[in-house]
Amino acid sequence: MRLLVFGRCTLLLQVAFAALSLLAPLSCWATLGDNAASVLADQAQMKGTITSIDRHAYVLHEITAPSGVTVHEYVSPGGVVFAVTWEGQFPPDFQQLLGPYYQEVQQAIAQQKSAEQSSDQQPTRRRRGPVYVATPGIVFSQSGHLHNFHGQAYIPQLVPQGVQTSDIR
Amino acid sequence: MIRRFGLLLAVASIIGWAACGGGGSSSSTVSSVSVSCSPSTVTSGGTSQCTATVTGTGSFNSAVNWSASAGTISSSGMLTAPTVTSSVVDTVTATSVQNSSVAGTATVSVTTSSGSNVAPIVVDAGPSNLGYSSTNVAFVTVTVCVPGTSNCQNIDHVMVDTGSSGLRLLPTGSGGELSLSLPQENDSSGNPLAECLVFLDGYIWGPVQTADVTIAGESASNVPVQLIIPSTTSPAVPTSCSNQNPSGGAGNEGNSVGDFGANGIIGVGLLPQDCGPGCTSQGNTSPPDVYYDCPSSGCTPTYATLTQQVPNPVSMFATDNNGVLIELPSLASSNNQGLNVAGSLIFGIGTESNNGLGSAAIYEVPDIYSSNFGNMITTYSGQSYPGFLDSGSNGLFFLDSSTTGIPLCTGFMGASDWYCPASPPANESVTNQGQSDSGPVGSPVQASFSIDNANTLFGTNNTAFSTLGGPQSGSFDFGLAFFYGRNVFTAIEGASTPPGSGPYFAF
Predict the structure, then answer these.
(1) In Å, how far from its chain's centre is CA B179?
(2) What is the pLDDT of residues B206-238, one digit of tens each?
(3) Over 70: is that where the pLDDT of B155 sits?
(4) Structural domain includes residue A165
(5) Contact, B380 vs B469, CB < 8 A?
(6) Residue A151, strand partner residues
(7) Does A147 sit within 8 Å of B245, measured CB to CB?
(8) Four-residue CA torsion sign, B437, B443, B444, B448
(9) In terms of residue numbers, what domain contains A122?
(10) Nearest-CA distance B246 → chain A (Å)
(11) How far is residue A103's CA from residue A168's CA, in Å, rounded to a whole number?
């Protein structure tokens, strides 16, 4: 693994991130399904510190907010955010993190809950605890307990060849 | 007396009808016997009426013979519990008269008389208005009172959760039982204090109020508790609250008792408060989206001191306040499942004769507020993962199909969120070890569990399952399925116990 050189301004940007991180909590980051340019476009609004690592099959951006939430964004060689993961004592703002996919996740969870609570859908039962939904469009899981949330979301069609989903963690 | 006489008549009439069947023709068969006892928890020497439902084909004989593992039981199914000095589970068996190889069982939890540190647990189908069968949820009854008065209410079917801290109750407006009007707690600005408590699959929103709380023989006064209110009730849910859960605004678990699955939740986990230092003004640049200042103009995040926060109620008891022990019977002898299983929530660790650690291994997780978040190190196939014990999760949730080799069940979208091993049971082995920010603490200790086909388990009307599992990427959540047959202790952060101070798990 090596640090990704993000053009010539990487060091400058990282200094800027570090400075901004002292001022306010993380309020915005690039969202699932966006392109890599959106990562750069969102930089001015980011308040966390960022580290970027080139893992050849994808680029991993790690953003750490002062609240303790750490977000990883996985960008494909084609320049698209195909996966995000998060961990912290509080959950992230899913509206920001999942962007247009937030609604898809909500619908999938709602359908799952409704099926599991419905007596005509036996034999399944309601699952309590960690969330796991896998549709053709998105895989979303979140686990943990009070004071610890961690999870991941990825778009199966956008995962680059050669990347195992177990790498997204 | 009249009601009891009527019940005896009904039972007698069933036996009489069966007798008229003339012992059954050669084609009659008895296929199953199911048993339920009410109440499912009794105090020492108390009584419980058990009934059996016999199913079969042809003109089968529906008579049963009753037996009980402790105490006595009449020919009509009336159990008289034994006199006990510590909590026991009494197993009642009804065996078919026609076919003695067909039998059903139920368990009745027998506890010592009131004044004890033992709250009876029942793992049953849940509140009567739930609308579906509860699965692997441990329930207790909690008494709340308007502080300083005898204006009190018993709330049954309150979920026992070692994964959180704090007492939260559904008012009648949410389909719950709480009808008492409790005093509102104010924040440091003198405005009403509300809270957003986010769970993995939803969130709880509602005001923080105060109550005197009694469970078994343990009491605490002026305890901050949270109300679980519906989205239609004021104050409105802030977007910053609902956006923290994957279900969005629809994730409000206070909209109905079915959404929440219980009349309340009692968090008896590792933390003395539900947020701790992270929600106070010390060392934080802005308040997290947990506690909210709610003047009439709307709610915005605010700091809450440790004493303003919703506490683990155990930490406020006068005695037996350093943690809890959850005892649930092994289900191994009944196909790893059961109906209305009884157990005990025992307060204190090493404080009484009934809550000693014995040979339990201890898993210390001292740095609960920092990067380890109260997780053990769980090792599976040579890989380390975060692991924790959460009685509020209803299965053994771990990793994914590609890592475990266990396929998902077929579900409504193609794949369900439960495991269905191809040739059950899938037998799994892990080691667990404590950890601090600087690395492992103590020795790794082996633990085994098995996973059965969830669709097969759910084909019954049972409510308790020790081999129920599902996927969860990258970690191990040892939910209630793991607790059966184990004594599981959770020691509260900073509290003194015989081997040292919490936080730790032990089992």
Answers:
(1) 23
(2) 999 999 999 999 999 999 999 999 999 999 999
(3) yes
(4) no
(5) no
(6) A86, A142
(7) no
(8) negative
(9) 2-159
(10) 6
(11) 22
All residues of chain A having their beta carbon less than 8 Å from the beta carbon of residue B198 are 90-91, 149
Inter-chain touch A117–B258, beta carbons under 8 Å: yes
Q: How many Å apart are CA B86 and CA B315, to the nearest integer? A: 23
Q: How far apart are the first and last CA of chain A?
A: 16
Q: How far is CA A43 from CA B64, B234, B240, B355, in A?
A: 73, 37, 22, 54
Structural contact between residues B84 and B76, judged by C-beta atoms closer than 8 angstroms = no
Query: Is A168 domain-assigned?
Result: no
Considering only CB atoms, which chain B residues are within 8 Å of A102?
Answer: 246, 248
- Name residues whose C-beta falls within 8 Å of residue B505's C-beta, 6 or more positions apart in sequence: B270, B362, B363, B365, B376, B388, B389, B488, B489, B490, B491
Q: Which positions ≥6 away from A39 have C-beta within 8 Å?
A: A30, A61, A73, A75, A81
Continuous H helices in B214-342:
239-242, 257-260
pLDDT digits (tens, 9 = 90+) for B390-438: 999 999 999 989 899 999 998 766 678 899 999 999 999 999 999 999 9
A102/B164 CB distance under 8 A: no
Of A105, A106, A146, the CB nearest to B269: A146
HEC assignment per residue over B445-500:
EEEEEEECCHHHHCCCCCCEECCCEECEEEEEEECHHHHECCEEEEECECCEECCE
Domain count, chain A: 1
Query: In what helix (H) or strand (E) does residue B89 lie, and over which residues does it extend?
Result: strand B88-96
In chain A, DSSP finds a helix count (H) and a strand count (E) of 4, 8
Counting Cβ atoms within 10 Å, is residue B27 exposed (0-12), middle (13-18) or buried (19+)?
exposed
- Residue A139: C-alpha distances to residues A20, A63, A82, A157 (Å): 32, 21, 11, 11
* CB-count burial class (<10 Å; 0-12, 13-18, 19+) for B416: buried
**Residue B105: Cβ within 10 Å count:** 22
Residue B405 pairs in a beta bridge with none
Count CA atoms within 13 Å of residue B40 on its CB side: 25
Give the pLDDT band of residue A4 (cuts 50, 70, 90): very low
Instruction: Report CB contact under 8 Å: B243, A150.
Output: no
Instruction: Round to whole Å and give the CA distance between B29 and B11.
Output: 20
* Lowest mean per-residue pLDDT among A80-84, B220-224, B496-500: A80-84
**What 3-state DSSP class applies to B230?**
coil
The tokens for A63 are 């953003």
By percentage, how much of chain B surpasses pLDDT 70?
A: 93
In chain B the domains, ranked by start, together with CATH numbers, are 31-111 (2.60.40.10), 118-316 (2.40.70.10), 353-506 (2.40.70)
Which residues in chain A have Cβ-Cβ distances shorter than 8 Å to B389? none
Question: Taking Cα atoms as reference points, which of A31, A27, A25, A30 lies closest to residue A103?
Answer: A31
The answer as to whether A47 is a domain residue is yes
CA B397 to chain centroid: 16
E strand or H helix at B10: helix B2-20
Is A142 contained in some domain?
A: yes
SS3 B141: strand
